[in-house]
Amino acid sequence: MCGFVGVLFKKGKWPGRVAVNKTLTKMSDYIAHRGPDDQHIWMNEDSGIGIAFRRLSIIDLSISGRQPMTSLCGRWTIAFNGEIYNYKEMKSKLNREKNIFWRGSSDTEILLEYIASYGLIETISDLNGMFSIAIWDSYKKKLWLVRDRIGEKPLYYALSANGNFIFSSEARVFKSNDYFDAEIDPESVANYLQFGYVPDPLCIYKRARKLLPGHLLEISKDNNVKVYPYWDIFEKYQTCFNNKYKGGLKDAISDLDTKLNEAISIRLRADVKVGSFLSGGIDSSSITSIYKEILGDIRTFSVGFDDPQMDESQYAKEIALHLSSNHSEIKITESDCIDIAKNMHHFYDEPFSDPSQIPTVLLCRYAKQYLAVALSGDGGDELFGGYPRYRKLSERWKNNIKLPLPLRKLSNIFQKNLFGMRNYPIPSIRKKLRHISYLNPETLYLDELSRWRPDQKLLLSDNHHSLNLHEKHNNLFKNDMSLSRNFMLHDFCNYLPSNLLVKTDRASMAFGLEVRTPFLDHRLLEFVWSLPDFMTYEDGKKGILNMLLQNKIPKILISRPKQGFEPPLAKWIRKGLKNWTGDLLSTANRKKEGLYDIKYVMSCFDKHIKGGKSFAYPLWTVVMFESWKENNGF
Predict the structure, then answer these.
(1) Confidence of residue 477 (pLDDT cuts 50, 70, 90)
(2) Terminal alpha carbon distance of the chain
(3) Using CA atoms, how far apart are residues 543 and 484, in angstroms rounded to an integer?
């Protein structure tokens, strides 16, 4: 787990080794937290490319694992962030079929020689891991960028005004780059204000983008850029769904146990200490119980709130006691959370406002004191239908389509006009009209995920639109899958990589902690996607995952309603964060930058403070944006 930055200079634009070294050093300093153990710079003046690397040593802690690394044949040079879990199997294949002189035992060297032996495309299809890769082909004079299938590891790129191609593990590097004029992108702001995060492939900066999960980017010296998928999640999901699982319920539980064991086993490979996050919920308890079966002696970590209404740490304690784990817990106070909340801009390179970022950052900081790698249950909800919204919105849509289409269209027009009347005397009528006005299930779902809906007209320009996944996959919601499965697929394409995985990656890497997610093993995904609905989500209890867990942990310890990892945000904005929030909004009002209607936001803040309707999540979205801007020189 590491971070890298690089510049491919346009032909004739190479400024000299000293200048490039200075620029790459400055850029890599901005991601030093991602790799505190080592740093190195590689340049090729003839090709006009330079790459800087920051290393967090997990496998092969010696100097032989240093990056950027060049293959034995001299053709390929790689910078690689992440982990290749099946590196042992790849090395065995190379030893059987090729004659490799190994310089060390790192997964980077194995990956590099695998590419040199079998080619980039074949290698990528064989990888099991989380990764972002930059690799230079000195024969063809081409740079390749590759991002893992689900998007666990970030990868940004940008084309500067003078034609230089810049790439990085984090967006904050663009602000420090001598060859890039960092400007805020209004399109990304529009999407951020709606969802609370900047969805892939957008980036908060103009002319910059994130590489989509499961995609490759190829660029030559003449700046001819090609981006295409090597693992299309929608196509893979539908293929698995159509190739339905043939076994019965007992077979499926057994097969799930096997595949989870395989996914967890290879994620325990490390030359450093490994532990597990444990919330007491089904997902983390499943991971931890199998982790216990594999290793016996285990270490677990949980976070709790000092507010009893928000705290679920006692459930984690009960699971830990049953599994006889060496368990550690951090109990965070309101003061802890308020202090760290004001510093989220240090951890997140783009505006980001999922409130669970606060306890996640504190948990990662705490766990890093004891270990370098932690297992996580991320992805379990999207895989087994754990969010109540899947079922709730499916029912709402079924009720909606019973109404005549002309009536729904009329309601759509009427409720949008009503929102221009922000002091409309009966807001409940407007809400009911909105709930029957959806013309397709995706608008229903995007409404549910929105912090500030488009019909609220927060933006001062109508020229921006929210991300529409139909642009990526025209067949979303136009297939034989249930609505709930389409919603789950929607989350795999958007909410999971752009929100949840960003939250965990930035929070953990801020402290040099690597977090691994067994539920996102592509072999496990493809198996679960082939299962019928009644085995996965229809019971509202995560189907065979819950059944499997009951074979390992007493039912009484896990039979409880789902509780989110959410702090008491509404309370904090009314009390401990009140002055800070008010100051940020007042500053935004004075600047009058014209991105959004700050006066409307301030009126919502006033209503919230007075104890009326809670605007906690919409306000937090704006506050995190303004805090990010203030601390990034905007």
Answers:
(1) confident
(2) 31
(3) 14
Residues counted in the chain: 634
> Looking at residue 470, what is its pLDDT?
44
* 619 vs 604: CA distance, rounded Å: 8
Q: How far apart are CA 168 and CA 244, in angstroms?
A: 40
Residues 430 and 424 sit within 8 Å (Cβ to Cβ): yes
Per-residue b or e along 115-131, where b marks 16 or more CB atoms closer than 10 Å to that residue's CB: bbbbebeebbeebbbbb
Whether residue 346 is predicted with pLDDT greater than 50 in this model: the reply is yes
Alpha carbons 285 and 291: distance in angstroms, whole number? 10
Are 415 and 433 contacting, i.e. CB atoms less than 8 angstroms apart?
yes
> How confident is residue 231, by pLDDT bands cut at 50, 70 and 90?
very high
What are phi and psi for residue 486, nearest 5 degrees? -65, -40
- Please provide the DSSP assignment of 420-471 as one string: T-TT-S-HHHHHHHHHT--SSHHHHHHHHH-SS-GGG--BS-SS-----GGG
**CA separation for the pair 241, 532 (Å, rounded):** 8
| Measured CA distances, 232 to 106, 187, 404, 423 (Å) | 29, 25, 36, 46
Interhelix angle 87-97/107-118, rounded to 10 degrees, is 50
Residue found by looking up tokens 């995609």 in the block: 215
- pLDDT for the residue numbered 80: 92
Q: What are phi and psi of 174, to 5 degrees?
A: -65, -35
**Cβ 509 vs Cβ 152: under 8 Å:** no
Q: Give the helix/strand (H/E) hosting 50.
A: strand 49-55
**pTM for the full predicted model:** 0.94
Rg (CA), the chain: 25
Burial of 321 (0-12, 13-18, 19+ CB in 10 A): exposed
SS3 219: strand
Task: Please tell me whether the peptide bond between 68 and the residue prior to it is cis, using omega within 30 degrees of 0.
Answer: yes
Note the pLDDT tens digit of each residue in 208-226. 999 999 999 999 877 789 9
